[in-house]
């Protein structure tokens, strides 16, 4: 999901490595903690190269706040066992977050998760999550389809892609889950490259049109997410790609469902999030 201040598609001609004293300013820079070794530096450099943003070598005399002041609007910071997204508003270290609690409920045999109720995901199915965000639904989907299933998750924002891709890679795999394949891509463009019925279910959780009070993690997501609206054309592409269903999450206060011509499922009067499901192509 790129920050409104970030370019939606970083140029591949960006330098992969840049000195800390550079006068150029960037939307995003990748660096490391000040306790860096060769392996960590190589991992961070490779991450920067994968999305075409600069990598800056760091040492203990180069504080993150100086990089934010002099060089970058946001930083992805690699540590030995973690990865963080840092900007002028604060820092967000990747964690499984709410997904951890949702998976524990599934492990306990509690079938109340809304993703399960709406998508009806089954062992061995293939899921395409078009709006990865902080990865909660992708992690839950991976648990629902199990080790024989497949979950691909798309993220357009370079900052969120790096945070979640490398954050998930650092977590131990749940024994009853498949891996989440994270792809740096624009969902509307990527859908057009896929064959009919390539996935069983396609998921969308676009950014809400209207802000509401939320967690620190979600506020960080807002600052770096892509706000391109979901369109009818993209939903139709998703229906072509989805064999069984397209599931869409949205805010009760948003006009997005109406613009898409989709009626959400009935919900409790105090529900702030609504869900909708439209049939897929039936093809595979």
Structure characterization notes:
With 284 residues, the protein is of the alpha/beta class. Helix content is 31%, strand content 21%. It has helices at residues 38-51, 64-70, 98-107, 114-119, 136-145, 158-169, 187-191, 216-224, 232-241, 256-260; strands at residues 26-32, 72-78, 83-87, 90-93, 126-129, 150-155, 180-184, 199-204, 242-251, 273-279. Strands 7-6-5-8-9-10 form a six-stranded mixed β-sheet. The longest helix has 14 residues, at 38-51. The radius of gyration is 19 Å and the shape is globular. Mean pLDDT is 89; it is low at 1-15.
Q: What are the secondary-structure elements, in order, as H or E? A: EHHEEEHHEHEHEHEHHEHE
Query: Which sheet architecture does the biggest sheet show?
Result: 6 strands, mixed
**Amino- and carboxy-terminal Cα gap:** 28 Å
Give the spatial strand order of the biggest sheet: 7-6-5-8-9-10
Which whole number gives the mean pLDDT? 89
Q: Count the E strands.
A: 10
Gross morphology = globular
Radius of gyration: 19 Å
Low-confidence runs (pLDDT<50, min 5 residues)?
1-15
Q: Beta-strand percentage?
A: 15-25%
What oligomeric assembly is this protein in? single chain
Number of helices: 10
Structural class of the secondary structure composition?
Answer: alpha/beta
The helix content is 25-40%
Can you give me a brief rundown of this structure?
It is built from ten helices and ten strands.
Name some characteristics of this structure.
6-stranded mixed beta sheet; single chain; about 280 residues; disordered N terminus; 4-stranded mixed beta sheet; 10 helices; alpha/beta
